[in-house]
């Protein structure tokens, strides 16, 4: 039994020591909270600063997206424009051929000449191909003079004032852009 008593005494002593240690570190009504060494306004200022940086980054990202979108649209428009007017130089060179065919038709002597019929068909075919690709003829006979589409090279005494009298050379547009102005004589 003495062993049991000894164990009981040791257990009681251990409990007492532990109880005293717990009571020593446990807060009491007399103890107050420890004052913090951390300044809360510093953290609030830092948070505000970081929020500002996030806002600036978002705005910069939005601007970059808008710039990229605008650049892509400009490139698409320029590509479309380049496609639309890629034929411009080629068409200008073909206009001399059209003029020569028209001169041949106008200066022909024979009415039922098969060669003349061939020239007329060739002229008509060439004009239809040009029209297919957006080329339009500017033939302003008896219309009001328009300096944007016509080039006055003389005066026509038989035409009304401000009206186109004689058309010396037809003009042409490609997708509503002037390729060559019509050379005309205008009434005085």
Strand content: 15-25%
In the predicted model, the low-confidence regions spanning at least 5 consecutive residues are: none
Average pLDDT for all residues: 84
Strand order of the largest sheet: 1-4-5
**Tertiary shape:** rod-shaped
Radius of gyration: 48 Å
The first-to-last residue Cα distance is 147 Å
Largest sheet: 3 strands, antiparallel
Order of helices and strands: HHHHEEEEEE
SS summary, helix count: 4
Fraction of residues in helix: 55-70%
Structural class: alpha+beta
Kindly state the number of beta strands: 6
Overview of this structure, please?
This protein is α+β, with helices and mostly antiparallel strands. The chain is 57% helix and 15% strand. The protein contains 4 helices and 6 strands. The protein has helices at residues 2-25, 40-84, 88-106, 114-132; strands at residues 135-138, 150-155, 164-169, 171-174, 177-180, 182-186. The strands form 2 sheets. The protein has a 3-stranded antiparallel sheet. It has a 3-stranded mixed sheet with strand order 2-6-3, with no helix packed on it. Helix 3 runs antiparallel to helix 4. The longest helix is centred in the N-terminal third of the chain and has 45 residues, at 40-84. The radius of gyration is 48 Å and the shape is rod-shaped.
């Amino acid at each position: 039994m003495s062993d049991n008593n000894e164990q009981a005494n040791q257990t009681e002593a251990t409990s007492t020591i532990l109880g005293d240690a717990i009571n020593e570190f446990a807060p009491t009504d007399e103890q107050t909270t420890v004052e913090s060494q951390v300044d809360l306004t510093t953290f609030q200022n830092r948070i505000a600063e970081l929020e500002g940086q996030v806002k600036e980054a978002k705005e910069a990202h939005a601007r970059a997206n808008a710039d990229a979108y605008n650049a892509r649209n400009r490139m698409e428009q320029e590509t479309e424009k380049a496609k639309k007017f890629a034929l411009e130089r080629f068409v200008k060179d073909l206009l001399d051929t059209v003029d020569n065919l028209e001169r041949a038709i106008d200066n022909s002597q024979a009415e039922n000449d098969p060669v003349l019929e061939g020239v007329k068909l060739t002229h008509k075919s060439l004009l239809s191909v040009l029209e297919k690709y957006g080329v339009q003829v500017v033939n302003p006979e008896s219309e009001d003079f328009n300096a944007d589409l016509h080039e006055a090279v003389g005066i026509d005494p038989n035409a009304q004032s401000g009206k186109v009298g004689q058309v010396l050379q037809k003009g042409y547009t490609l997708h509503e852009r002037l390729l060559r102005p019509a050379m005309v004589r205008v009434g005085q």
